[in-house]
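Researcher: I'd like a structural prediction for the single chain below. Treat it as a standalone chain; there are no partners to consider.
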Amino acid sequence: MENTLYGNFRATSISKEELVSVLRQLSLDARELDVGSSVPMLEHPPSALQFCREYVGPNRPVLVRGAVSEWPALALWNEEYLIRALGPTPLTMATTPNGRADALVPGPDGSALDPDTGNPVFALPMESKVDVATFYQCLRRRDGASPVPYLQYQNSSLSVEAPQLLVDVAPELGWASEAFGNQPEAVNLWVGDERSVTSWHRDPYENMYVVVNGAKRFHLLAPADGWRMAVRRAEVHRWEAAGPGPQAGLELRPTGEATAWSSVTPPGTGRGEAGIKAVVSRAAEAPGPGAPGANSDAPGHFADPFLPPPLEVEVGPGETLYLPAGWWHAVEQSPDTIAVNYWHDRHWGAGVAAATAVESLAVLAGLSEA
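Model: Treating it as a single chain, here is the predicted structure.
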């Protein structure tokens, strides 16, 4: 029986061009038939049944307003309040010289490759324990030479490191937990400014992301687009203090481990301290697909103007983004952003197998390394 959707391949071998043609059609069909051209928005939280049927089951993101309108955190959380509420409680502060933690970066010698293996360098942040007042002192230091701090510890950092703040938020979003069939595995706290940019990656968790202060702009691609992400094998390094004293700066040191990460340049990289002065304005300034400069720094098929561009959605104070497990995303944020997210275990079904197959085909086609 002929496969009329993706073509009839009866040859004993398939060329790279034919394989890429199939993957391109998959991206186009997924966007047209399922994902759509924008992230839908609900003015009120859905029932568990609606959320499961219309979003969790189809693995489709949605922005929800009004889900956390009763949270005291919306009115309380700012620098002064956090310092008063947390006092000397130690928090895990991530520090990088450029705001790019957990990302591919130039290696220790300034090149893009590890000098010993020739592979790209994946940089973990330096981590240190500080109280929140010290964190904010570091965050306010904007002399151009100071490193960029970020509260991004992801091992249920809110409930483990800052339990004093739990009275200001809900322990879960009930309708989401009911739809997922489980309680949150982790509840995380995120505090930073526009210099911190999250590189392209995907997580194995269902993610309910709530912005309390500021704004975040998520750039999203469905699992069907995983073949476009130019995943590279990389040597894991960690930023560490280059010497004693705050003026010593940071340097990369190898950990002896390896990973695989997308080499697509995340949005917002390279703008330095300016970052995104206002997340909203970026949407109007960004070139559309096919326009000069659109994704010009992205490798390979990510930049193809004939393929669907990433979806973009801004999440403002009191808004909740459902980011389905397996979706590729990169994130920018405005100054003084505070957020909370809930990670839930995903259902390991046929969708996971399909996404894995797409990424395996990318390796076979020479588009990714892992």
